[in-house]
Amino acid sequence: MLEKTKQYINGQWVESHSNETIDVINPATEEVFGKIPKGNAQDVEDAVNAADSVYLEFRNSSIEYRKNLLNDIVKEYENRKDVLVKAMTLELGVPVTASKNVQYEMGLAHFKAARDALDTLSFRERRGNNIIIKEAIGVSGLITPWNFPTNQTSLKLAGAFAAGSTVVLKPSEETPFSAIILAEIFDKVGVPAGVFNLINGDGMSVGNPISENKKIRMMSFTGSGNTGSKIMEIASKDFKKVSLELGGKSPYVVLEDADLDKAADAAVHQAVDNSGQVCIAGSRVIIPESIKEEFTAKVKEKMAGIHIGDPQNMNVEMGPVINAKQYNQIQKFIEIGIEEGATLELGGTGKPEGLETGYFVQPTIFSNVDNNMTIAQEEIFGPVMSIITYSDLDEAIKIANDTKYGLAGYVYGKDIEALQHVATSLEAGVIEINGAPRSWDLPFGGYKQSGIGREWGDYGIEEFLEIKSISGYFQ
Ligand code: NAD
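Output (structure tokens, whole complex):
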């Protein structure tokens, strides 16, 4: 049993003021394997006070100092690779190969990107006799979800540290151990006491007191729209800045001239990677009517071949989903898809054969989906693909944008003009043409109900900065 019941406040591991704990469950076995504190408002108060007490000192630290700090974090993060990979496989149920090649790498990449962005980001700009200064916003509350444990935490932490903002982090109670390892990394490299504070607990016990705390100047949240809206409402009472990364229901547009084999392969990965628990998943696959039969046959064959099972197994491509609640929610969406008249091509309700223990879901494909259907409009956060057809490109773009979300969008094909036309017409913040890998210095964030603000690299640092203009600075 992994028992980590202390909080990290002011550079020390200290007892929580609460005696309550939260069980952490391995989603592949449904067994409790760890315990964390169910922190409380007093823990949050102590953490915020610690962060506030060193805020000015950290804000005024040199860029060189913060760059070196990020560099030390990068090195120590690399030293802790095995333990991070293991923790994420246990707490999230992500297959060990993806834990190593995707989850671990993403966290690392954000610290590197923030470090490198400090080479070019300008904190001072002269305009005539005047100056514009960008400086850290102050104590920031960071609240993160479970689907990419080191990615979601690291991208916020890297931005805040680079900016010079001090933080109180509350990671998801489902995946707290990778955040605890990050705290150990920061402790080891000597992140100054008070700059980083970690309070474990759930949304009501810890998340809420963070949003309510008057000394916090900014809330950076990633998670569901419901929670984001509550945080924004509370933050509005004292006009805290908010940065929100929320859900998505992203279109994956295939052009008539696309290499269907490659496009089908990528579409399957959009659906099943991380068991579909990806905010930018291209789960609405929008294809020309003319290729419907061929494309559907290809995705069916490829998805049926996905190796599901024990995430510790090196050959497994898809593990369980995070918990019973998520499992049940996905089942409900599959039932609704069938009820609303979509054609179930693969998968369906119930667990995959032979995987009765663990929150395993069958990879599922629906065709003949109308964009008005629930499965085309709501974020399922599970391995469920909806195939929608179009007759011309204008219709494809219309369908793609007909959603309350606007996080990501994908387009696959050969005609460069058509690819660029679709890419620039999509109402979303994160667009990918032909699966081009995302560079870590590109901004990440959503339009519409997918969020407010941008993260990653220099854009992520700017989120944690205030802007001051001084006229007459130069006489
Ligand atoms: P969630 O909103 O339930 O929880 C996210 C975090 O908020 C957790 O740490 C949770 O403890 C905390 N929380 C819950 N209630 C709170 C409250 N009242 N006040 C303060 N904090 C509270 O989301 P989740 O289930 O962990 O994550 C899944 C959702 O996150 C999906 O909707 C997904 O699309 C979204 N997501 C978005 C992005 C993105 O970058 N846009 C990335 C990953 C996940």
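Residues 122 and 134 are 8 Å apart (CA to CA).
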